[in-house]
UniProtKB/TrEMBL annotation:
Family: Belongs to the sodium:solute symporter (SSF) (TC 2.A.21) family.
InterPro entries, A to Z: Na/Glc_symporter_sf, Na/solute_symporter
Regions that span the bilayer: 24-43, 55-77, 97-116, 146-166, 172-194, 201-222, 314-337, 349-375, 410-429, 436-456, 462-482, 494-514, 582-603
Membrane topology per record: Multi-pass membrane protein
Originating species: Rhodopirellula europaea 6C
GO CC term, one of those recorded: plasma membrane
Protein name (database record): Sodium/solute symporter family protein glucose transporter
Pfam families cross-referenced by the UniProt entry: SSF
PROSITE patterns, sorted: NA_SOLUT_SYMP_3
PANTHER family, per database record: SODIUM_GLUCOSE COTRANSPORT PROTEIN, SOLUTE CARRIER FAMILY 5
Length: 621
């Protein structure tokens, strides 16, 4: 009865949704966006095809601010506003801690791993395996991960992004899923093929500006809809008040455990998620390897983390809260958009539904901003995945004598293939949260491996193979087999914790039972990377006894201090923005005070990090 009444009251709004159509101005803005994006790809193509390093690493000469913005643009995916909207509608603003907790992972990369990655001199993060491990198992791990991450995992992530594009296209322009996949896919593939990573980074910088403006403008407009009545009225709405808290109710353990305790105590270090890999990796590592110095790699990842968590979320959160007023139920969304497949009408569809109220001109800008978010993410994942296929599979196992031009050509063919596979997978998904949960579960228990492998000599290739295999098996069991066992039902955090315990126990046992990495390989690794900590003490002693000078490793203590100071800095900035919007002045004063103290602590810690400006030997290569 309540749902029916809500729909009846909103009949004028529903009719407005049905009558919404793009004007010539909107189409002109969207076309101009496509033209500018493709032109940037053409501009970058003059240098892209010269070599593998130029095509996939932009020659290793990119500045920190461009790399940082590029990483932010990549994670500013079309599916992210949908994901955040679904979380807020279901669990409130505090539900976002399920991904806010990954800040700890990101800042660990900034202050501990960014310099190590740049120092390694590898062309992809998978090449690291044969730098760190030895024997055929290292080669197998590199080749398998090239397909496992570059194709399977990568296509799942891209499919999630494409699913968001399908929902946006269906709601905003009435496009079919096939039309969305074909049109946006072709344009994205074209400029990615032309410009390589340099083209991706340049277009990312342009697309980020468009995407941020569109998100802020959309939040402003929907707050001033007649039914919402401004931000102050929105916050006083009966259904919204219970959703605005930045922290869950600490007396409600059913909310506290999955939203705060598990993400902050377990998930950030134990899990694996693209863009938030413990110890760095994936496209984040690709950006760091493309930096012109260790300092640029560090500053780029710091800019990324600050903007990703403190700058971007609030426009999406505001739209999500407003959607609770305008579309309180899934039935109200379905009635407003009867042509949308009922299978994909989930809470995450509320974000594009709210955008249908934007006026002509602004609607075109916002659609262009969402296309920008969509394309920046896809282009990065296409280029990154293709680098794995070309360098870590084709060159390593198929054609050892491949020329630079052959590698670039292979990467371009791989780009096309990845887009086709991802588009096909997208047509089988229903919600952003669905694949987010799958990815979290698949990576559960492997994160600590990627942290320790830099600082403990005993981690070996068998460790990683075990962690990857066990976590995948557990994820598939929970997805397809657990419901048939008759055992008590487990919620998502219980499944995640189970996966972490079993996977971590398994790879720890295998680490001590399997043969260690060859000592000569470990010595070369220490000499090249200069890792700090006691985990390499025995290797350093052997090198010293042989008369080989060993440079002092980076201070892990200083890195961890900077990490903690930055954690408080970013979280307090995130909270300050929220309390300013909520007009909660006491809380705002407290959060701003924490922000200032944290900034001072980071400033004082920075010199002890010894982050130099000039490029080192590996940077010059």
């Amino acid at each position: 009865m309540r749902a029916a009444a809500s729909i009846a009251v909103r009949t004028p709004i529903i009719n407005l949704c049905r009558d919404m159509a793009l004007s010539y101005v909107d189409y002109a803005i969207i076309i101009a966006f496509f033209v500018i994006t493709t032109s940037i790809g053409l501009f970058a193509s003059r240098r892209a095809g010269k070599s593998f390093a130029e095509y996939f690493l932009a020659g290793g000469q990119m500045s920190w601010w461009m790399l940082g913005i590029s990483m932010v643009a990549t994670t500013f995916a079309a599916d992210t506003p949908n994901l955040v909207t679904g979380i807020v509608r279901r669990d409130g603003v505090s539900g976002n801690w399920v991904w806010w907790a990954f800040l700890l992972t990101g800042l660990l990369t900034v202050f501990v791993y960014a310099r190590l990655w740049k120092r390694s001199g590898v062309s992809t993060d998978l090449e690291f395996y044969e730098l760190r491990y030895s024997g055929k198992t290292a080669g197998f791990l590199r080749g398998f991960r090239a397909i496992y991450l570059g194709v399977i995992f990568n296509c799942l992530v891209m499919a999630n992004v494409i699913l968001a594009g399908i929902k946006l296209g269906g709601v905003l322009v009435g496009a079919t899923p096939i039309q969305v996949v074909l049109i946006t896919g072709i344009v994205t593939v074209v400029y990615t093929l032309l410009g390589g990573l340099r083209g991706v980074i340049l277009t990312d910088c342009f697309q980020f500006v468009v995407a941020m403006f569109g998100a802020i403008a959309a939040a402003y407009v929907v707050c001033n809809l007649p039914e919402v009545g401004g931000f102050s009225n929105l916050l006083q709405h009966e259904e919204v008040r219970s959703k605005t808290a930045l922290l869950p109710d600490f007396s409600d353990m059913d909310a506290l455990i999955p939203l705060i305790i598990i993400p902050l105590a377990v998930q950030w270090w134990s899990g694996w998620y693209p863009g938030s890999e413990p110890g760095g990796g994936g496209y984040v590592a690709q950006r760091m390897l493309g930096a012109r110095s260790e300092k640029d790699a560090t500053l780029a990842t710091l800019l990324f983390q600050g903007a990703h968590y403190a700058l971007r979320p609030w426009p999406w959160i505001i739209v999500a809260l407003a959607s609770i007023v305008v579309f309180p139920t899934l039935e109200s969304i379905q009635v407003a958009f009867p042509d949308i497949d009922p299978q994909i009408v989930q809470d995450d569809l509320a974000y594009p539904a709210m955008l249908t109220f934007l006026p002509s001109g602004l609607l075109g800008i916002v659609i262009a901003s969402l296309i920008a978010a969509f394309m920046s993410t896809l282009s990065t994942h296409l280029n990154w995945g293709a680098s794995y296929i070309a360098h870590d599979f084709y060159r390593r196992f198929v054609n050892l004598d491949a020329t630079e031009q052959r590698l670039v050509a292979t990467g371009r063919w791989a780009t096309v293939g990845l887009m086709i596979v991802a588009g096909a997978v997208a047509l089988t998904l229903e919600s952003a949260m669905e694949s987010f949960g799958i990815i979290l579960q698949v990576g559960a228990g492997t994160g600590l491996i990627y942290i320790l492998r830099w600082f403990w000599w005993r981690i070996n290739a068998f460790t990683e193979i075990t962690g990857m295999a066990v976590s995948l098996a557990i994820a598939m069991f929970f997805k397809f087999g657990y419901s048939h066992t008759g055992l008590p039902e487990l919620n998502s955090w219980q499944q995640l914790l189970t996966g972490v315990v079993i996977t971590t126990t398994s790879w720890m046992l295998v680490t001590f039972l399997s043969p260690p990495t060859d000592r000569e390989t470990l010595k070369r690794f220490v000499l090249k990377i200069r890792p700090g900590g006691v985990g390499w003490k025995s290797i350093r002693e052997e090198l010293a006894e042989s008369g080989t000078p060993v440079e002092t490793g980076d201070s892990i203590t200083a890195g961890l201090k900077a990490m903690m100071a930055s954690t408080f800095l970013v979280y307090s900035a995130l909270f300050s923005t929220g309390y300013l919007l909520y007009q909660s002045w006491v809380c705002l004063a407290i959060s701003l005070s924490v922000c200032v103290v944290s900034a001072i602590a980071l400033w004082k810690t920075w010199p002890s990090l010894n982050i130099g400006g000039p490029a080192n030997a590996s940077d010059q290569s």
